[in-house]
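Q: Could you write out the predicted structure for this multi-component system? I'm mainly interested in how the pieces pack against one another.
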Amino acid sequence: MSPRRDTRVIERWIAICFAVSILAALGLFAVYAAGGQTQAEGALLALALGGVGVGLLLWAKRLMADIAHETQPRHRPPGAAELESAAEAIEDGVDEIRRRRFLTRMLIGAAGALGLAALFPIRSLGQAPGDSLLVTDWSPGARLVTADGEPVTVDTLETNSFITVFPDGFVGSADSQAVLIRVEPDQLQLPPDRAAAAPDGLVVYSKICTHAGCPLGLYLAATQELRCPCHQSTFDVLDGARPVYGPAPRPLPQLPIEIGDDGILRATGDFTEPVGPSFWDMPS
Amino acid sequence: MTTRAEARLLSKILRIGLLLAVLGQVAWSFRPTPNRALTDEERVGQELYQANCSTCHGLDGLGTDNGPSLAETGPAAVDFMLSTGRMPLANPADQPLRGEPKFSPGEIEAIAAYLAALVPGGEPIPAVDTSQGDLVRGAALFLENCAGCHGAGGSGDSVGGGQIAPSLTAADPVQIAEAIRVGPGVMPRFGPETLDQDDLDSIARYLVWIRSNADEGGAQLGRVGAVAEGLVAVVIGLGLLILILRLTGSKL
Amino acid sequence: MIVRRAVDGIDERLGATSFVKRNLRKVFPDHWSFMLGELALYSFVLLILTGIFLSFFYVASSSETVYLGPYAPMHGQTVSQAYGSVLRLSFEVRAGLVMRQTHHWAALIFMASVVAHVVRVFFTGAFRKPREISWLIGIGLLIGGIAAGFSGYSLPDDLLSGTGLRIIYSAVLSIPLVGTWLAFLLFGGEFPSPELLPRLFVMHILLIPLALLSLLGAHLALVWHQTHTQFRGPGTTEDTVTGIPVWPRFALKGIGVALMTFAVIAMLGGLAQINPVWLYGPFVAYTAPAPAQPDFYVGWLEGLLRLWPNWEFTLFGRTVGELFLPAVVVPGIIFTALALWPFAEARVRRDTATHHYAQRPREAPVRSAVGAAGIAMFIVLMLAGSNDVLAKYLQIEVDTLNSVLLVLLFVLPVVVGLLTFWICRDLGRREVRPIEAPPRVALRRTADGGFEATHVPHGEREEAP
């Protein structure tokens, strides 16, 4: 094919591309006026943009092929003389200031102090941690309630079942979230001082994973394990939520509970340890 | 014409045979059955059970080395396992997964009826009416109780120990309710005190609804989330663009 | 005529004619791999354009409100204003969902092309003197991009992204000495704080974009001023650059590539669902969905967290949290190593010369081997981050997969590195594809019947006789 007919074919194709783009843009307008539809909007946008895009690329690649490659010099580094004069110009200015030694030192002192002062507003951005990480909203006598606010009684749960619980009045509290599990009483292997805190096979652990803080959602009844969906840390429910697999380093803190005379479950204190992942000033 | 010795032998054989047959009948009559006559349906169920299930679950339904006891499991579990094709399970070591059900609904009913007579107890088949369910409550309950294993879009996930919380896209409302009540495999169970009948209706309604309603954005990419999205972005998005670059620019 | 008058007018006011003329005639080499950075640039432009639209509708507040919009499963639910505004944007604002999805897909394409571009620069040695500063700026852009993406998809305040925020909060907490103070400072108090969302919003639409724009400006200015690297070829030298001039050919190509980038991203934005926050539900602190992964450019960090053993130790009687090493120290080491690479390589090779040639990977076998090993490690970490999804689809145990990946993490990079080294050295020796393309010759018949051969430079068409 001669170069001129070649060009005509390409020109035609480019024109078709631009025409497709125009039609797509009109279609976009119509779709939008009719109320919009996500898939149509995306497809038409793609066509409208792509039509011009393909056209321009064809133009640049095929119709402008006669614009040849050129060679140009790169940036030439300055000669030694120019480097020398530039360095001198800067040094002269610095020397002029440093002639006044005492004032220069005072200036540096002032700049330093001002710089430090400018950092102070950053402190306003946060609160002091205080003991926030060491206490939760659980207190002795607090009733256990579900996410709906219903008090949890000794009959609420069947064996091999679990439910998320909060202290009464603090439903949804992030640091107080706990999981109540019911197992066969003789299956629990808690140390003696903690066994009394889990009456009748009902044991409560913090729901916050001690690895990275995700709420533990998976209770595997068949193996009596609690598993975290984020990084697969697994805890042994029967053995004080000791970590048996995964990156979690510490067991889940236990919440000591008792069965009240009215059958309602109540906490007898806060968690045995700080909840959640470890931090520097965590009491060991 | 037989001799007298041969005739005596023949009669001995016949008499022993008759004795064995009678003893066999007696022994057979002591096999585990409900303490009453079986109905026709239960008889059908009995045949199916003994042919397909008893090798692992025992003729008495109380289990063997290969399969657990079916006592206290109830019709809900039976219906769930059979109607989702999880049972019969060819290899007892595998996790039961959804497949083509081997039995027709009538046969499943028969087996369930027989087992209810053989090993009574357990969860009855729950009634589910999705039209009575509340979509909003169903969404909230699902996200709180189920999404941690089954995924926010019901796509399923592995839960460790070689077990998988399966995708929920194929389960019908009754099967959903059965699984919630029974807690098959490693799944915990939720009794009426934790999730009542309204809750079952609502969760089932929500799960059915999101099958065909929550994909305004386009292709759902398996509802798996960032993994699929990243794959699409790199392979399809960047791939297409690099193709365009190679067509546009020069090569060495 | 108009152009003449415009040029006159501009020159009278700015005196800039020669500046404009010089720069419009500037040449750029047009190898296709040099345009990967452009992909990132154009994705970034699209991010800004779509982002401006989104910022008119998003409400950066954790205050509770009741959602009363058309998405049925959330109707009547108490949600944060942020979450409600994103639902409204997705279901009630015309073109809202396509804008939101295009924005998110553009972010993924941006990060993917930045990584591709960094890989290209690394394997071609284009970071060598005098371009070390561009490299450092580039690493800054990479980190800024990750920060922008993470803060961005945390804005809808949905269950999945909120879980991710919790993990970062725990990582900051684990820092020795200052961890608790720093976490409370950055997050506005104990997690989840109502101050967090507005802060993320400011980070995402103001602070990070400002930083990115400044870095990007410097990056482009440096490329312009220092001129682009190029591969060896006929007619090329160290001190010259051979390519096509900016105006009109390179500019038109650039605009064309920009439009195609927009087109591909827009196609994904309309046809492929991304981050369906209505399915995840509003963030509550006491439940998390699974599978739970961050966007892919944070996937390597997720993999580190899943594979890292549960080591925790005490220092001076205080606890160094398990997260500190995999979530803070290791990423710090990786990015520092990346940033310092040009200087380290120059030191090791005792190479203080300026380089304007881009190398082919085979010319630097050790560097290519290290790069390939790094990519292999990155891929294993990404797989580890998606281990539960992988385990489900491959029907294998997650715990087994983790063990396999842990072994692969150390073995695969070594294997890949060695293989790469040997292949590069082998190719370099054998000159299978010669670095210089063979010359093209045009034959012409002369009047007296002989032949005349003329050399045709690459990129030019032969003229018709």
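A: Regarding packing and overall arrangement: Chain C touches chain B through 77 residues (CB under 8 Å).
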